[in-house]
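Reading a protein record of the kind used here takes only a little practice. These numbers are not coordinates but entries in a learned vocabulary of local backbone shapes. Here is one such record, which you should read through line by line.
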Amino acid sequence: MSLEKVVPDIKDALHIIRILCRNCVGQKISGYVTLDTGPARPDETDGPKELHIVILDNGRSEIYKDPVTRQVLRCIRCGACLNICPVYSKIGGYPYGFAYSGPMGQMLNPLLLGLEQTKELFCSCTLCGACREVCPAGIDHPELFLYYRSKIAGMMEAGEKALYASAALAMQNGLAWNLVIKSARLVLSKKVHEGYISSIEGKAGGWFSCRDLPKIADRTFHELWKGLSRNGA
């Protein structure tokens, strides 16, 4: 077991079990709960002679030293965040690439495997906050994802930094943003097949190796709204 599983007494243990089962499967208790009182006493005829529990650290002490990341250790693995996550509900657990998936994996895997190796996980989150709202342990998942993103900001290549800087400037200027959208529509419209874009050249091509992108709409919301306003709608 990992060291964050240790609680002071049986009262705390039963409290954790109650929260875990209710948030995981909606039951008061599940069939996966086992109580072990240790080695058999001298007057007992059955039971183990010895009981050994191996407690693993595996970097968790370092995680605890950071006041932001230490909240990850409050996770009780109930899976409530997976049940509510709009991304996990669509793609399942395999794309997360490790034992932990969903928002739980997005916050824990980077700390166990390294930010650089797992940046796709926390950088692809929509930050909708549903996981934070449903978490019984009160973990702020979006805060962690933003914290991880700030950590890897200095690891980006010059081209990637320039791309994000350009996107930031475009998002601050309505005319520039509309120009970008119209240009992207012209370029990507040539890649559309039966309503979807399945491949593209360059570094962005890897994104399409396991997913498709719906074609960009012929008109933006603002363009549609202007049309409705002119028609008196």
In short: The longest helix spans residues 10-24. DSSP finds eleven helices and three strands in the chain. The radius of gyration is 24 Å.
